[in-house]
Design goal:
By secondary structure, this protein is α+β, with helices and mostly antiparallel strands. It folds into three domains: about 35 residues; about 80 residues; about 40 residues, no CATH class. The chain contains three helices and six strands. The protein has a six-stranded mixed sheet. β2 and β3 form a beta hairpin. The N and C termini lie far apart (about 120 Å).
């Protein structure tokens, strides 16, 4: 059996699927990588330009919205569920007292709210009301305290007393200027209570 020598064996011509010889493969790969890098850079530049454009549009909308509010305007402040009871209204009627950059100071019927609010926390209203700016008491109050003071019930949570005397002039309900309800007195002294609804 005759085995061919190394001289008799001719080196095959290796080629890639693209038709390039083995020696040309590094050059083809390098060109492909450079092309991909160029595409990625262009995509990044386009994305950055789009983001800047979107941010400018958003700032323009926000500025227009902020400028639409003026001191003395009536607004409805959206309240959180944790600050009110189920029976209380979702919005708190307020008047804009001060405008500082992008923040607003608001006042309601029971006082001046102790926090500044952004324009997205409230909305302007054309509600007809007898509530005027000069009617706002000169005292700071939290949103929860304001809601509780204006609540038709007891505000956030359930207020009840265990007074058994019937007078209910010094119980927790009376101190909070609230009427006793069916949960008070353990349900047994409701007929004798003088502070009931």
């Amino acid at each position: 059996m005759h085995l061919p020598t190394s001289a008799e064996v001719s080196e095959p011509s290796l080629s890639t699927e693209a038709g390039a010889t083995l020696a040309e493969v590094p050059a083809v790969a390098s060109a492909s990588v450079a092309e991909n890098i160029n595409k990625i850079d262009q995509a990044r530049l386009t994305t950055k330009a789009n983001q800047v454009q979107q941010a400018n549009r958003m700032l323009s909308r926000n500025k227009k919205k902020i400028n639409s509010f003026n001191v003395g305007d009536y607004v409805l402040l959206k309240t959180e569920g944790i600050d009110r009871s189920i029976a209380d209204p979702v919005n708190l009627l307020c008047i804009i007292l001060e405008k500082k950059d992008v923040l607003f100071k608001l006042g309601c019927k029971v006082g001046i709210l102790d926090s500044m609010f952004g324009f997205n926390a409230f909305e302007k209203t054309e509600l007809v009301t007898t509530f005027l700016k000069q009617d706002i008491p000169d005292k700071k109050i939290s949103v929860r305290e304001a809601i509780r003071s204006l609540s038709v019930g007891h505000g956030q949570g359930v207020l009840k007393c265990n007074c058994k005397a019937g007078k209910c002039d010094k119980c927790s309900c009376a101190k909070a200027s609230q009427k006793c309800n069916s949960r008070c007195h353990g349900g047994y002294e409701n007929n004798k209570c003088l502070n009931k609804i």
